[in-house]
Design goal:
By secondary structure, this protein is of the alpha+beta class. About 35% of the residues lie in helices and about 15% in strands. Bound molecules: the ligand Cn1ncc2ncnc(NCCc3cnc(NC(=O)Nc4cccc(C(F)(F)F)c4)s3)c21.
């Protein structure tokens, strides 16, 4: 078909392999496109569940947003197709799997690995914000690791174009910045807050405002009740960067390009990302 004509994919175009993960709406499988031998990840979503949760519009927006994104630290969504009962997302395969599994295995990452991931994420977010897209759901569960160990942001199911911001609450509270928790207007600064949460969780193995009760987590977020444990040992430079991103007033959060210039990133991030 011509380049601009979307190929109509069908399930029989693929040889489906092992399951890669189980999501709320469906499973992800390793797959090979038969004609090109290209390895992909195939996410299978049940139409019934999508309809039931009224998220079809979100899925359409995800496909639309992803179709214009090309960045080494953003997982590609090559296309989609559907049959009677299911919708299939054809995704780039991230050979080293889910970052959160790696974080659980290692307990926490060292400063070099953490800074390298944060720098890659900052570059991906600069690219995204340049396209007026906010991801809004940056957390370890949505980060994958590519063949060369590079970080890939995945799952734009909650992303929005900045002109039409919605206040749907999504998933764990831990990553929500004060303005989303307090349900006020929010903008691309939310992703800078989440980057600060991630940086803390990479270094300490737990998110900064974690608490047993939701109400306690909520209180700690809106008060920015930021505490650094004595263990593991973390450099003052890293704490300084985290404290500059986890700022209640969203406009005062360290801009992403300043994150890339911060001494902790400059001294610890591997330039290759
Ligand atoms: C585990 N794993 N290991 C290796 C590997 N390589 C690639 N991918 C993997 N996993 C899939 C990662 C995803 C990327 N994009 C997604 N997108 C999505 O799940 N979208 C989506 C779903 C349900 C509902 C909605 C809606 F309607 F609410 F918007 C949107 S999931 C891999």
């Amino acid at each position: 078909p011509h380049a601009n004509e979307e190929k109509r994919w069908v399930l029989s175009d693929f040889e489906v392999g092992k399951p890669l993960g189980r999501g709320k709406f469906g499973h992800v499988y390793l797959a090979r496109e038969k004609r090109s031998n290209q390895i992909v990840a195939l996410k299978v979503l049940f139409k019934s569940q999508l309809k039931q949760s009224q998220v079809e519009h979100q899925l359409r927006r995800e496909v639309e947003i992803q179709s214009h994104l090309r960045h080494p630290n953003i997982l590609r969504l090559y296309g989609y197709f559907y049959d009677q009962t299911r919708v299939y997302l054809i995704l780039e395969y991230a050979a080293k799997g889910e970052l959160y599994k790696e974080l659980t295995r290692c307990k926490h990452f060292n400063e070099k690995r953490s800074a390298t991931y944060i720098a890659s994420l900052a570059r991906a977010l600069i690219y995204l914000h340049g396209k007026h897209v906010i991801h809004r759901d940056i957390k370890p569960e949505n980060l994958l690791i590519g063949t060369q160990g590079e970080l890939k942001i995945a799952d734009f199911g909650w992303s929005v174009h900045t002109f039409n911001r919605r206040r749907t609450m999504c998933g764990t509270l831990d990553y929500l910045p004060p303005e989303m928790v307090e349900k006020t207007e929010h903008d691309y600064h939310v992703d800078i807050w989440s980057l600060g949460i991630l940086c803390y969780e990479f270094l300490y193995g737990v998110p900064p405002f974690e608490a047993k009760e939701h109400s306690e987590t909520y209180r700690r977020i809106v008060n920015v009740d930021l505490k650094f444990p004595l263990k593991p040992l973390v450099s003052p430079a890293a704490k300084d960067l985290i404290a500059q991103m986890l700022v209640k007033n969203s406009a005062s959060r360290l801009p992403l390009h300043k994150v890339l210039e911060h001494p902790w990133i400059v001294q610890n991030a591997d330039p290759s990302g």
